[in-house]
Design brief:
Chain lengths: 265, 515
């Protein structure tokens, strides 16, 4: 308790809070319900679950791509519904699996998107773009003038990460950013990203269905099943969880041979 | 081969006219598709914002496209009233045809933007407007241009039909060629129009390719070229149109067919030859524009037909006595419009009942009454106009007691000549001054019961103009009675059939007549 008061920027300060949040569209089965959790400053919360378990929906409730129909999402102390969605989104970086890079923009203009929307001076924008491209491992000389279709999948995703970081947002949302990459590239980017997030002190919410990725990146893992958060714990506690869905995921880690047998035969 | 050579010769000899018609054609297409783009692109964007509207709006635009162009022109004539003829209805029709491809492509182009790009744009905090201008429109541009391209090509083709309602353009050659069965003339309209369509297709295709997402410096070259070409075309149009505008002291006008151009030129030349009055020419005006321009003082004289003035302008029921009609239009024009009818020129441009020469000789046909007893073995073909008008077929058949082997075939007037010459029909109602009558060896039967009202040609001049230049009256009246039906046919044929310049044809006639 003492430490919380003397160190307001400790990892216990909630930046995003979910309070009894649910989302139901047109009277059908709710997409998510009874969500109650916090995301603390500087942590990387990984939302893990099967396809359709509600993790991406939860992510979109944070930057108001979706609006909750019940309860309240609070971002930086203010209800999301009270935020101007445009202002809110510019404070939150967003990376998606398909990258969503603008095909008619060069790499440089893609990365510069938020700074240019925010009306930064061109010189400052250019500096920032170069800095970020180096940060994500792309040589500005080589890549600044290229178009997305001239890049490999991994390079594109690096640009996607650089674009999300460009406005220096305190929060980053990532929706299976490495899901479409080959295993080697994926592992490489995960490694680099883990190092990067440790340096940047951003609050990150990261969606994946890959438990290896979750363990590689997470400060805490939240497990989704049927639109509910069924487990929320640090990696070590999560590995020991008794929840059947958590066990199912962990088993895929413990029995790699069994999994290979399953998939081949 | 020969066709190609004669087409080439024709285009070279008539290059000024070809250029003028091409420019007119381009202006119609440019204005119409330009307006359709200005209206259709925002409408397409609106549909992406209000998807519920998209089905009914696209369906409506689709229905518009299925209306045959002649029918659409027909609908527009009563709606637009006195502007129902000329460039305006043509532009409106082309505009309506152009809407569908432009709206549809704008809509599908924007809706087709990769959803992940859209999601990323929203997620980055772009406003709706920023998304539209920076993401959706740029990514949809090549699809939108493809729509404009389709609309332009359709318009270039459809604009040829616009000549039917007096809008000019390359369709003039096509219709004139149909009327004269002159393949070269038809090709002179069709080939440049087709080339224009190909050029537009190629050119807009280039722009479309350049604008495909992810290309660098997208607009520069083709757009500049396009703008330059359009500027040159517009400039040329301006120059050409300005030739037709008021430049002399007395302006002579004509309606938009060959005979009228010859007559306008003839009036102009006799004034120039017999006085020092400067003469301006404003020929080929559509519909009742010459009449309205005369009332408005924009022109000073044109040649009108007594029957037309009597029924179409003064709205009287047809009367058959030529003297009575002439006297009445002369009196009423002076009272109502302050316009003077000068002496009739001599010929009567009325319906001509025509048969093949060999039939006339074999059956000894001279008058329409002579046909009555043969009519049960004859087939007739008439233009739509003749079938429907007050002084047309029903009264004609009654007056002469005609009973044809089968109900008359209704077809385009220009096609009836061909049908008669080929033996598909045996009797048609043509035009008494048509050059084709002599060319095809047809015989006109005398209207011995005076069924058809007279359409005597005479110049109408503003009385104000006559007061200022009294010498005009005697100059024009020196032509009185000089132009017989046969003479008029020859002149028409010299221009329509032999493709000679109306100026030269008129000059030779005046020399021959001793003016």
């Amino acid at each position: 308790m003492e430490s919380e008061i003397s160190e307001p920027k400790s990892d216990r300060e909630p930046v995003i809070e979910f309070r009894d949040v649910s989302l139901r569209i047109d009277g059908s089965r709710p997409l998510v319900s009874d969500l109650n959790f916090d995301v603390n400053r500087g942590e990387t919360l990984v939302l893990l679950g099967r396809s359709g378990s509600g993790k991406t929906t939860t992510l979109k409730l944070i930057n108001r791509l979706l609006d909750a129909t019940g309860g309240e999402v609070i971002v930086e102390g203010k209800a999301a519904s009270a935020w101007d969605p445009i202002r809110l989104r510019r404070r939150i970086g967003y990376v998606i699996q398909e990258t969503g890079l603008f095909p008619h923009f060069t790499v440089e203009r893609n990365v510069a998107l938020v700074p240019s929307l925010e009306g930064w001076l061109p010189s400052r924008t250019r500096e920032r773009v170069e800095e970020l491209m180096r940060l994500v491992g792309l040589d500005p000389e080589t890549f600044a003038g290229r178009y997305p279709r001239e890049l490999s999948g991994g390079q594109r995703q690096r640009v996607g990460v650089a674009r999300a970081l460009a406005g220096d947002p305190p929060i980053i949302l990532m929706d299976e950013p490495f899901g479409a990459l080959d295993p080697l590239t994926r592992a490489e980017l995960q490694r680099e990203f883990a190092a990067l997030s440790a340096r940047l002190h951003k609050t990150i919410v990261f969606v994946t269905h890959d438990i290896r990725e979750a363990f590689a990146l997470a400060s805490r893992i939240g497990l989704f099943q049927g639109g509910r958060l069924v487990e929320l714990a640090g990696p070590r506690e999560f590995a020991a969880s008794e929840h059947p869905e958590a066990r199912a995921f962990i088993q895929t880690l413990e029995a790699p041979d069994a999994r290979r047998d399953e998939s081949t035969g | 081969m020969e066709q190609t050579k004669s087409l080439f010769d024709f285009l070279i000899q008539n290059r000024a006219e070809v250029l003028a018609l091409t420019t007119q054609h381009l202006v119609l297409v440019f204005v119409a598709t330009g307006a359709a783009a200005v209206a259709g692109i925002p409408l397409g964007i609106l549909l992406t914002r209000k998807p519920a509207l998209s089905k009914p709006v696209l369906a409506m635009a689709g229905v518009l496209q299925t209306i045959p162009s002649l029918a659409l022109f027909g609908f527009l004539i009563p709606i637009l009233g006195s502007y129902g003829i000329g460039a305006l209805p043509a532009i409106i029709a082309l505009f309506l045809y152009s809407l569908l491809p432009i709206i549809r492509n704008t809509f599908t182009g924007i809706v087709g933007v990769d959803p992940s790009v859209r999601e990323a744009a929203r997620g980055m905090g772009m406003t709706g407007r920023q998304m539209l201008l920076q993401v959706e429109l740029p990514l949809a541009t090549s699809v939108i241009i493809a729509g404009v391209r389709v609309a332009t090509v359709i318009s270039i083709g459809t604009a040829t039909i616009a000549a039917a309602i007096g809008a000019g353009g390359l369709g003039m050659y096509i219709f004139r060629g149909l009327r004269m069965f002159d393949t070269t003339l038809m090709l002179a309209g069709a080939v440049p129009a087709a080339l224009m369509a190909l050029a537009a297709d190629f050119f807009l295709g280039r722009i479309e390719n350049r604008l495909a997402p992810g290309k660098s410096r997208p607009l520069a070259r083709p757009l500049k070229l396009g703008l330059a070409a359009s500027a040159v075309a517009l400039l040329a149009a301006g120059v050409i149109y300005s030739f037709g505008s008021r430049s002399g002291e007395v302006i002579i006008a004509s309606k938009d067919f060959t005979e009228q151009v010859i007559l306008g030129e003839m009036i102009a030349q006799v004034i120039e030859a017999n006085s020092d009055v400067k003469v301006g020419r404003k020929f080929e005006l559509a519909g009742d524009i010459p009449h309205r321009d005369l009332l408005a003082g924009k022109i000073d004289a044109y040649v009108e037909y007594t029957g037309t003035a009597f029924t179409a302008i003064l709205k009287h029921r047809p009367v058959t006595d030529p003297r009575e009609v002439y006297d009445q239009v002369k009196r009423e024009y002076a009272e109502a419009f302050d316009l003077e009818w000068l002496e009739p020129l001599g010929f009567n441009n009325t319906f001509a009942i025509l048969v093949r020469g060999d039939d006339a000789r074999r059956l000894n046909l001279e008058t329409i009454s002579d046909v009555a007893k043969h009519s049960p073995r004859m087939r007739a073909g008439f233009g739509q106009d003749f079938m429907s008008r007050e002084d047309g077929y029903p009264g004609f058949a009654r007056t002469y007691n005609l009973r044809f082997a089968e109900p008359p075939r209704e077809m385009d007037l220009s096609l009836t000549y061909r049908a008669l010459a080929n033996g598909q029909v045996d009797l048609i109602a043509g035009n008494s001054t048509d050059g084709l009558i002599d060319k095809l060896g047809l015989v006109q039967l005398r209207d011995d019961r005076h069924y058809f009202p007279p359409y005597e040609a005479a110049a109408i001049v503003r009385r104000e103009t006559l007061a200022r230049y009294p010498q005009i009256t005697s100059a024009i009246n020196s032509l009185a009675g000089k132009l017989t039906d046969e003479e008029m046919r020859k002149l028409n044929y010299a221009v329509d059939g032999e493709h000679r310049d109306a100026k030269d044809v008129v000059r030779e006639f005046l020399e021959r007549a001793g003016k």
